[in-house]
Task: structure prediction
Amino acid sequence: MLAQDWPDLEIVVVDDGSSDGSADLVRDSFSEVTLVQQANQGVAAARNNGITRAKGEWIAFLDADDIWLPGKLKAQMDLLNARPDARMCYTAWDVWTSADPLPAPEYLAALQTQSGDLDRWSGASGWIYPQLLLDCKVWTSTVLAHRSIFSEVGYFDSALPRGEDYDLWLRASRVTQILRIAAPYALYRMHPSNITKSVPEENYRSLVVGRALARWGYSSPKGGAARKSEVDRALAKSWTDFAGGHLGVGSIDRARQATLMALRIDPLLLDGWKTLLKVVAKTLGGFR
Result:
């Protein structure tokens, strides 16, 4: 973050009740950083606290696990200054496994020439509400947003244990174009603690999209709409993913319920029938 070449960079670090000494490290080593400490309240509350403490007009986010690549903020500000009709920008990204050494500067510089070829997720640019209904294409650690957006649509929903970012970007997509830079400007760090997260009791992806559909339907505020069949397919897939997670931890009843929900939404979903067969096999195996 400190390596960014954008002038007048204000850094606000929110310590969400950590006990690993990171707050002391920031306080002792980085006098230019504003340190905000709070009791553990979760990522949504921490980000909201950072937004309200920041003084600048533009807000960017960086989770503790992840890395910005050089030039990120400048590339985004250059684009947004050239496009005053947009108030938010995100970029492509690449994945880095923390067991590996940090990629060499030459590799990081080469990423910028790939035009997003290494990006694991395709993206969309403009009035992207219809695309967001199908998938959360915006990764929070790549976002740069004008603070007026939060005044209009609100902040991260701290009542959502997961999907709070997806929920906010859906709301933001109703009031502004969201631009995408195809070159990767951040690294998503993979490590055991974020690979083996506990399986949630609720399908928050379905919840977030369902709330958006109930409020705004399938259409963008500036033309264009998602097809109901495509949204249904995406929602059904979210339920098979949810079922697979519960199947993996032995929650057979929850997996069965989720699979039936997927097939109720999209009876033609092949993954749904495959998951149902796995559920049946697990159920029969439990009677042996």
User: Anything to note?
Assistant: Residues 116-121 have pLDDT under 50 and may be disordered. The CA atoms of residues 137 and 223 lie 19 Å apart.
